[in-house]
Amino acid sequence: MDRRGLRGVDHRILSVLRARAGDPRVAGAARALSRAGEHGALWLAAGLAGAAVDRRRRGVWLRGAALTAGAHVVSMGVKRVVRRPRPTHVEPLVRTAGRHSFPSSHAASAAAAAVAFGPLGVRVIPPLAAAMCVSRLVAGVHYPSDVAAGAALGALTARLGARWATGGPRD
Description:
This protein is an all-alpha fold. The chain has helices at residues 5-19, 24-37, 41-53, 58-82, 105-116, 125-138, 144-166. The protein is globular and about 50 Å long. The mean pLDDT is 86.
């Protein structure tokens, strides 16, 4: 294992955070977030539920759900190109839908949701999105650089998508 550079840092940070799953409460939370975040399901459900109960802002909720789904699709496309294998130096806490790690699609959809639903002022979404990102490390299924790249990709996709969807400036 390369102990220098980004790869070494990735391995060390992942090892430390994966060890936190020794606490059953932490492990349970990581598993629950992993299941809820699969294919962006939590964020899509939030968008659809918000649209159903908040008719005045229905369009914003639906646009947020669409942007979150779009970020997930973009991350899956990048995964197919990069094809970085998942970590093997730690025991995974959960099963994964695929064998590629970069970028984290859970992080992409979580960050996209935080950006896309941001105008709604729902205060629970950003910390829940952050917890979703950290859970991928605690679960041992992504390197920190996978999660950072996924979050950046998701936030950027949602931001650019929102500008396109609303006809706003594209700077």
